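Holo prediction — (2S)-2-hydroxybutanedioic acid.
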Amino acid sequence: MRLLTAGVALAAILMAAAPVAQAKEIVIKFSHVVAENTPKGQMANKFRELVAERLAGKARVEVYPSSQLFSDSKVLEAMLLGDVQIAAPSLSKFKKYTKKLQVYDLPFLFKDMDAVSKFQAGPAGQKLLLSAKKKGLIGLGYLHNGLKQLTASKPLKVPSDVEGLKFRIQPSDVLQAQFEAVKAVPLKKPFSEVFTLLQTKAIDGQENTWSNIYSKKFFEVQEYATDSNHGLIDYLVVTSVEFWDGLPADIRTEIKKAMDEAIVLGNKVAAEKAISDRQKVIDSNRTKVLQLSDDERAQWVAAMKPVWAKFEKQIGKDLIDAAVASNN
Ligand code: LMR
């Protein structure tokens, strides 16, 4: 009898323990399109490391860089289908999900990255994190890359230099309008195709940050770059509402903490690489980096800024004003 009671008790203990022992490790796939030696690449790897340290056995991050898992045109659809849990697409890639983020694409909006940080940390920037929530996506935070530069197969000093040239752009209507405003021919193409398009001369130029120009070797296939700082590439670190809300609360808190810390590291890398990767491009002697005089810069501003008015309705004047105010 006693043996039977002990047996029943043991079975009860084992059954109670079973769900814990069987609790499945949560796998978080993080897909991105850039190289690992970039702000986003470093941030993703740091996030993986922090989750491994703090949530061992409970959650694990798998990072897929360089469009290995999904290209930028597919990753958000894949996220809504549950095939990837975290991504950090450029803010220029959310057109299907929200028009509000288009604010970040307006040419010559932010005077420097401090202004970008200020806007993102303020109420308007924070509200934008949730601007795609109705479409099933939650922004967990912003990550910096940096200001964009123009690169081309010929020197670009004034707007008329780009007339008729083909430029690869991210899938953004604002960027399309920006290049049309200077009579260039914009082509929306995935990031993974840019190097080959430049190498084969299917396009004449592109716009990107120094870290992307360097890490993806665009400088090896472009004779000129212009220090134009005319726009921004920053990221929305994003997940799906379904995945996020389905996480146990304690794990969700830890993941968010790890993400915030990884973003701090990524932003530091971004600031460093904007300087060091630019220098590496100059030192390579493959690309000549051109400076704009104040007058030349003013010509680009005058030619591109009218684009703002075209998108004011979709974006909202209040949002544009808040972004402009962050320059002060
Ligand atoms: C691009 O497509 O040029 C960039 O958005 C790539 C990236 O993720 O930095």
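READOUT: The pocket of (2S)-2-hydroxybutanedioic acid is lined by residues 33-34, 72, 90, 145, 170, 191, 208, 212, 233 (CB under 6 Å).
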